Amino acid sequence: MTPAIEATDLRRTYVEGSGRGTGRGSGGFEAVRGISFAVPRGEIFALLGTNGAGKTSTVELLEGLAVPSAGTARVLGHDPYRERSAVRPRIGIMLQEGGFPSDLTVAETIRMWAGCTSGARPVGEALAATGLAGRERVRIKQLSGGERRRLDLALALLGRPEVLFLDEPTTGLDAEGRRDTWNLVRQLRDGGTTVLLTTHYLEEVEALADRLAIMHRGEIVLSGTPAEVTAARPARIRFTLPEGVLAAQLPLRLRAAETDGHVEIRTRDLQEDLAVLLAWAGEGGIRLDGLDARSASLEEAFLDIASRDGSSGGGLPGDVLTGDARSGDAPAGGVPAGKVQTHDTTARTDRQEADAR
Ligand SMILES: Nc1ncnc2c1ncn2[C@@H]1O[C@H](COP(=O)(O)OP(=O)(O)OP(=O)(O)O)[C@@H](O)[C@H]1O
């Protein structure tokens, strides 16, 4: 089955004089450098990356808001830029900033968008789903930052989209609002909606994403399920040795780094190494203060990438990469039903104008 979203060797170059970006050569600045991935229907796929990695530049190509300088973008089997009329009614877009008229009320704003959307959900349903029930009469300018994000989401959902693009959907939300949004996104996925999510919250990715890709300097440098990405990283055991006991006295298989008695062991077999350590400590009557053993987290994988400044994205340590980071292929899932919604594309006009072609 055709994937819901497919990027093949996708590239995006910004031309000179567009006012953003660094390191441009005479041919402009290449913000997206030949990335490929596919998102099967009914999956939540998270695109992560350091600041300026190229996430938004990529997502805009998939949303049909800009044309690639090379490679292909496909959404529901169509070119989202050239076949916009076929794609747009079937997708929902939540931008980083909605840019609504500030004097309209919440209800007026939703009704306005519903008027442009075929098969729109009832206003009350969109409000209830996003926790805005009771705020219908409030003007946009009086909403809190978190409430505006909820309204952005309500508008993106209005047309029952088959594919939903969420650009940092929980920025500005409190902990409860974030959980509510996660639950809603899961419900949508369970109903067959495909979700492409960009976020800076790694716990959001761990909670939501079926698969993820991490971008750095325009390339995908790591991809897989959250479990695959973290399983490829070593676990850590930390503790403090009592005075007079040296890390060099640890069993040979526990190679450790020691600073002032603080010991860190990195291991690919946490259970076995922990058992050996505890047996050694038990036999010697040695107390391991502050003992802390934990599996690798997504955060560690991410920080590893972020710290690789000056890299072109390739050449990460072998233990970081999960398979072929650039293939991103995956089986297709079930076909959802749905309709359109997109709102405020004006926020991106400067980028579109800056595109190489
Ligand atoms: N209109 C533009 N003209 C020139 N360069 C641009 C333009 N828009 C973005 N860039 C550059 O392209 C690179 C990728 O930017 P992009 O906004 O896609 O990154 P991002 O991963 O979404 O970043 P963030 O997490 O900070 O939002 C950055 O170096 C940025 O400065």
Automatic annotation (TrEMBL):
Which PANTHER family has this protein been placed in? ABC TRANSPORTER ATP-BINDING PROTEIN
Q: Which cellular compartments is it found in?
A: Cell membrane
Q: How does it sit in the membrane?
A: Peripheral membrane protein
Q: Segment Disordered: which positions? A: 308-357
ATP-binding among the record's keywords? Answer: yes
Compositionally biased residues, Basic and acidic residues: 341-357
Q: Which residues form the ABC transporter domain?
A: 5-242
For this record, the Gene Ontology CC terms, alphabetical, are: plasma membrane
CDD domains the record matches? ABC_DR_subfamily_A
Q: What is this protein called?
A: ABC transporter ATP-binding protein
Extract the Gene3D superfamilies matched here.
P-loop containing nucleotide triphosphate hydrolases
Keywords of the record = Antibiotic resistance, ATP-binding, Nucleotide-binding, Transport
* Sequence intervals crossing the membrane: none
Question: For this UniProt entry, what is the primary localization, expressed as one broad class?
Answer: membrane
Q: Out of the domains of life, which is the source?
A: Bacteria
Q: Which PROSITE patterns match?
A: ABC_TRANSPORTER_1, ABC_TRANSPORTER_2
What does the record give under GO molecular function? Answer: ATP binding; ATP hydrolysis activity
Q: Which organism is it from?
A: Streptomyces cinereoruber
Q: Which GO terms describe its biological process?
A: response to antibiotic
Asked if the Swiss-Prot or TrEMBL record annotates the protein with the keyword Transport, the reply is yes
